[in-house]
Amino acid sequence: MRDFLEKMMLIDRRWIYLAIGLAVIIPAIKSFHVPVAVSPEVRKVYDFVDDAKPGEYIFLCFDYNPSTMAEMNPMAYAILNQAFNKDLKVILVTLDQFGAGMVEEIATRVAANHKKVLGEDYCFLGYRPYPAIVILAMGIDFRVPFPADYYGTPLDSMSVMQGIKNFYDVKGVIEITGGSTADFWIIYGNGRYDFPLALGLTGVMSADYYQYLQSGQIFGIIPGVKGAAEYETIVIFPGEGMARMPYQVIAHIVILLFIIISNVAYFASRKKKGKLGGGV
Amino acid sequence: MKREIPLLIVGISGFAMLIQYFIPTDWSEFIFTYAQDWVIVIGILALPLGIWSLVKANVEKLKVPGERFYSAVLLIGFLVMVLTGLKRESLEYGTTFMTIFTNVLIPIQATIFSLLAFFIASAAYRAFRARSVLATILLLTAFIIMFRFIPLGPISTVNLSAVAWTLSVPNMAAKRAIMMGIGLGATATAIKIILGIERTYMGHD
Amino acid sequence: MTTGQLILNGIAAFLTLCIFSFLYKDNPFYKFAERLVAGVATGYWTMLLYHTNFTDKVIEPIFINGQYHYIIPAVLGIMMWTRFSRKWSWISRYPIAFYIGIGSGVSITVYLYTYLFKQLQATISTPLTLDLAGLNALIIVIAVLSALIYFFFSSAHKGIFNVASRFGIYVIMIGFGAGFGLTVMGRVALLVQRIIFLRDYIVALFGG
């Protein structure tokens, strides 16, 4: 048994790849429902949008690209659907170089579903590089970095942007990102202009932002695909987040088993070699 | 002059932006507005540097036998996008330009990053062992966090409470301490840049 | 799915499998897809920059709207291109200095506010009451102090300092463990999205 465990410790990594690949294929063939409990930080984001009155403005910043869209797209769809359902006016922007195409597609599709008109009900400002400077400039006036929208229409000619100058004219900002722009929004956005800010983050990043939640610098976090599933549960929007939870369950079970087997094998081999445990 | 004038520019512009924060008048907001606007324009014009570097490097690689094919693929991809994107309307959903974006760029980029799932599973198996007290603490915490995905009735309820507490108390405290250190370091670096002590951005003569 | 969509999604599926082939070993299909995405991404970004940034912030303001003050940052931006010349690259230091100076000046106040003042305030302002919230507040104060002490290397870690430092590293390990646990979810989500795409394509191809 001990020899077998020692061999398991040295297994070729491609067998591990195969195991995890098979693990995520199982729910693709036969899915199942996973109950999702909603966490307070996700509910706060939902409540923020839900408390807005028809005609109020929210600012959505979708700063992600294809590398993180698996986690970010479900959040983006859920929030945009909720906003349009409540007849809110939406201002969209992206500060990620490959985000513009994806955001444009999402906005066009969701707006069409809700019969919302570009320029009257929502505006997509487009993309600018150097997020920190753009956020600072938007705090003065959206027209400083964006004299025209993504399609080249001057902002002053759009009815949705009449009387809207900067962040003080919107209810708040929800930033969905898989990169460092979350820091820029907190530092240069909320830090300079002190507007309500919530973040939708990848799983990798979300553990690093709870201190801002506790300090009140952000009012909510949607952490990763599970957060997206939680959001979809409250919004009652059957989206990709909920659909992906069975895969997460199976994959996590497999990885937990890997960790258990690996540690059992490790301790078994340590006993055999009779070594004392290492220090800290 | 080649180094002194840039240092002077850094010092004056940096100091002006610093004191502007504490002087909320019309003229200070005027300076702040124009500073941000001009930096955006400078930045936009600086970005072609990277594009030019990439194209030039791959044109040179066309002469290298082993790299010729792959460099040609890169350059063809680049040219196709440039040619299909000549009009502003090409940026809209449904055009050839955006169809290539959706069916080439998105799947490849998304899949490259999806490989990380395999690598993290491999790392979890091969490296994530309780070799020491610190590694054990890390392992147990990760275990608690990952366990929340497994629906086991009342055990899950207890686990979810543990996860919520772990994220909002000890994890939050650790990240706060790290962030405070980063903030102090970044502030010190910014001050050093303005005072001319830190000059690495200028490169070498 | 229409025939056109099947073909386009087929291309996407083929490219997805090219990248997945790297899991076995590096091969020409993977290299092909990798270089293709680099070219397509650069081309996409070039045209996006040209149409939405260069046109809106340089061409239109100067040549159409008559806002000639934009000529100054435009000239500064063009000066950056001298970086490619060994003889004239010193000229690029002027726009870099302007950019760095403004960025540094703006960041000092907001970094101190965001990373230090607000965090300190949140750490010490929660009341230490005799309930769970108060206990958590006490743990947070002790944990933050201990973790900061761990990173303080100007004094030797001896005596009570050493005890606090050891507690600090344990707290930091909890933070890293939490990060790892959430990272697994994030990485798996990326893979799941591709698997779902491939499954949907196979179903559309064979299932109609």
**Shape annotation of chain C:** extended
Order of helices and strands of chain C: HHHHHH
Structural class of chain C: mainly alpha
Work out the strand percent of chain A. Answer: 5-15%
CA-CA gap between termini of chain C: 8 Å
Text of the CATH class of the largest domain in chain A: Alpha Beta
The average pLDDT score of chain A comes to 92
Q: What fraction, in percent, of the residue positions of chain A are helical? A: 40-55%
Strand content of chain C: under 5%
CATH architecture of the largest domain in chain A: 3-Layer(aba) Sandwich
Q: Largest chain interface and its two residue counts?
A: B-C, 122 and 112 residues
Low-confidence parts of chain A, pLDDT < 50 over ≥5 residues? 276-280
List low-confidence stretches of chain C. Answer: none
**Biggest sheet overview of chain A:** 6 strands, parallel
Radius of gyration of chain C: 28 Å
Question: How many β strands of chain C by DSSP?
Answer: 0
Helix-strand pattern of chain A: HHHEHEHEHEHEHHEHHH
In short:
The complex is a heterotrimer of chains A (280), B (205) and C (208). Chain A is of the alpha/beta class and 280 residues long.
Report on this model:
The complex is a heterotrimer of chains A (280), B (205) and C (208). The model of chain A is unreliable at 276-280 (pLDDT under 50). Helix content of chain A is 52%, strand content 12%. Chain A is an alpha/beta fold. Chain A has helices at 2-9, 13-29, 40-51, 69-85, 99-113, 131-140, 181-193, 203-206, 210-215, 224-235, 240-243, 245-273; strands at residues 57-63, 89-94, 122-127, 173-177, 197-201, 220-223. In chain A, strand 4 (173-177), helix 7 (181-193) and strand 5 (197-201) form a beta-alpha-beta unit. Helix content of chain B is 76%, strand content 0%. Among the domains of chain B are: 4-86, no CATH class; 87-126. The mean pLDDT of chain B is 92. With 208 residues, chain C is mostly helical. Chain C is extended. The termini of chain C are close together.
